[in-house]
Amino acid sequence: MSADTLVSVETLGCFRVWSQTGGEITATDWGREKAKTLLQYFITRRFVLTPKERIVFDLWPQLDRRRADRDFKVALNALMTALQSERRPREASAYIQRQGSAYGLVAQLFVIDAQLFSDLVQTGSRVETIDTVQAINHYRSAVDRYRGDYLPDALYEDWASAERERLLTLYLSTASRLATLLVNRRVDLEAIATAEAVLARDPCWEEAYHVLMRAHSHRGNRPQVMRVYQRCSSALKEELGLDPMAATTRLYHELVSD
Question: Which domain holds residue 68?
Answer without folding.
Answer: 7-111
